[in-house]
């Protein structure tokens, strides 16, 4: 059975990224290359599942969910339709990706045979999935049920924003832990995580926070618009 070899492993034992003298991949065409045999080993089944898990969970939590958040931050003062886009990204697109990621992680743990949710990564993974589910339900609740005759921004809306950002911070830490600790621990580090994956982590974290915080520049405009809407509703005798 042949497995895709998507984690090009540096020569084992794992060299430091700055060690330019070590061969960089099994596809090194130099016939005299001293690439150890281990480099030519394709990913084993648990590694393949763990890699799929890592990619899907990272795409879900560090690309799609941040995209939905930044989408809301920037577009909400320009169109009323922002909410639909936010919900489609966070719910319709992200749920299948994150569920598939969880499925693969579950199967790795299953193969290890030590039980589920037994170490910091798997426990935090479960917590994140629960928080994500709560956040989805909460988002729908604050959109469809306007609770209380609020004359100011409802506290439940602030809670959704707060929980969304907490999920982001935990997910960023979770992926970091996965790359630096869980992968070597659970797979035996036969094929170490490539430096490019670690660089991608930093890039995704920095890009999200820079974009999101820069979007705070739109807050005065947003609050002014929301105030205007509340005043209009009050004048018309509508529920606030
Ligand atoms: C936000 C992103 C992530 C979440 C929510 C997450 C969550 C999980 C969950 C729920 C499990 C299975 C728990 C169980 O059934 O016991 C798991 C297992 C695992 N995850 Fe992640 N994970 C994430 C990212 C990563 C990354 C980036 C890596 C590696 C690069 C990784 C490596 C692993 C490994 C190797 C296992 C198997 C652990 C074992 O069997 O002991 N995860 N993860
Ligand atoms: C069905 C899914 C979802 C719905 C219906 C929904 C709905 C909403 C609504 C109504 C707001 C406006 C809140 C306000 O008044 O400020 C909002 C903003 C926000 N949502 Fe969601 N949401 C969903 C999923 C998520 C998820 C999964 C996350 C993150 C994990 C998230 C993170 C955020 C954040 C951070 C904001 C604030 C954006 C800003 O700064 O303006 N949402 N969402």
UniProtKB/TrEMBL annotation:
The chain crosses the membrane at residues 53-75, 82-104, 124-145, 157-180, 200-219. It is found in: Membrane. Residues 1-33 are annotated as: Disordered. Keywords: Electron transport, Membrane, Transmembrane, Transmembrane helix, Transport. InterPro entries: Cyt_b561/ferric_Rdtase_TM. It holds the Pfam family Cytochrom_B561. The keyword Membrane applies. Residues 17-218 form the Cytochrome b561 domain. Its main location: membrane. Residues 17-33 have a biased composition (Low complexity). The keyword tRNA-binding does not apply. This is Cytochrome b561 domain-containing protein.
